[in-house]
Amino acid sequence: MRGLLDILIFLIFLVVILFGAVGGDLLRVLIENLGGVAMSFSPLIVLVIAVVVFLIASVRIVPEFQRAVIFRLGRVIGAKGPGLFILIPVIDQMVKVDLRTVTLDVPTQDIITKDNVSVSVDAVVYFRVVDPVKAVVEVENYLYATSQIAQTTLRSVCGAAELDELLSEREKLNIQLQEIIDKQTDPWGVKVVAVELKKIDLPEELRKAMARQAEAERERRAKIITAEAEYQAAQKLAEAAQILSSQPIALQLRYLETIQTVSTKPGNTILLPIPTELFRLFTKDDKIQGQG
User: Fold this and answer.
1) CATH superfamily entry for domain 102-206
2) pTM for the model
């Protein structure tokens, strides 16, 4: 539609120039033959009309975030913009290219990982055009081409990784995906800024198995912590027993402290204090019998 409008304006421009060249005689003869009123055009009016028509047909404005790739008689002459510039009607053709960063959602891909686990993965790709001429000349549709490259690369990279790597090393996979896609789209003038894995869907059976595995791991850690606590407590008790056995007065103080603690508790509690010296008699008899 735009091309037809340019051709129409260009034809009007040629007609005005032609009538201006013949001094309006041709137009006057046509009007008289048709029974109309004869008119005459001064060269200044013809020139003003020609300039206005030319400006309407040739002036173009491109915003800051776009560039215009210009084709002259079918051959690319470069990119223009941003701002105002002039095209030659009919001879020049313009293709606009957006330079802003594009957010591309990669559809969900069904992938079999290296350890034969079926998962569904989707991602998002951020890219922008850095060379408008290549984006127009080297590829038919750079948006569609980048989308297809992103899908195939996502399947190949995730398929070469194991499930644990896919779940725990996303940053590494993101960098790998970005490098591969950027290398393939570089001849098209497209720069891939970043690639991010969004969601990884696992089968329901695998989720339950992983939950059981995590629960068993937590129970194992709890048992290990309990065993270590008992071992440390036994070590401390052994050290305390050695200290009490070497210092009799310490054992007496501990004995009195225990009596005081029990007596402070509510309830009817009967305490029968026994001197610690009685225990020494039993220990001496045990030693004598052991020596005998």
Assistant:
1) Band 7 domain (3.30.479.30)
2) 0.63
